User: Fold this.
Amino acid sequence: MPFSVVKIREKVLRIQKCLVMVGCIFSFFVITSGCYTEDVYLTTSEYLPYTTEHAENYGFCSEIVGTVIKKMNMNPIHKFYPWIRGQLNVRDGKVWATFPYSKNPEREREYWFSAQPLFVGRVSFFCCKDCLSENLRWNTLEDLKQYKIGGVRGYWYEGDFAKAGLAVEYTDHPEESLKKLYSGRIQLFPLNEIVGWYLIDRLFPGHKDRFCVLAKSYELSPSYLMVSKFYPNSERLLKRFDEAFRRLKESGGYRNILKKNGILYSEETY
Assistant:
């Protein structure tokens, strides 16, 4: 009888050792194969070259966000919706976060934001040289009341333009507003300079010289990850995101993503 008990104990120990080895092998496989513990749902819209559904990694801003989330050992799932629809999905907790978004008091009441901006863009008024001069002087938005202004629905400046009493023709996409600018239907259109020149090259090849930006910029606009307050474990996820993003910048990985996508790094704007 004692002999049988010893034999049983030996078998149990062998089984336990095998289970430990299987667990180690499985853990190694998970880590090295790029498997992730949880899906994280994100939304954005077309904002070339920052975000686009039609490029590898969905544009360099999407690549930054996706890289950070993978460093959290999670799987980023990108969904492309019109800006307003995506924003509402985040507000209601159907999606964890959207990007890139600027802060304002109204948004900060309804959403959380990443600790650091994903990038800082220079926003300027684009115009056509045969319509207006790049040397046009203005100090406040009220100074632009006499001009036909273009804008994109859901962008941060809607409130500012309304307060200034500007008459604005809104579209759903910046490409539509640039086409209006080119045709003379509007005279000024505010847009991130990197986005604007990228789209002009794409939409009007050979006609880039027709466009210019006003000498005075509209603003430097930090753009963040905007996070739902109602998505499961949202606050915990945001803390992990902030830490992983900090590590990406310190390691040089952030700058490498910019370089790979042909974006010049600047201490002022990134």
User: Anything to note?
Assistant: The two ends are 74 Å apart (CA to CA). The chain has two domains: 39-118+224-260, 120-220.
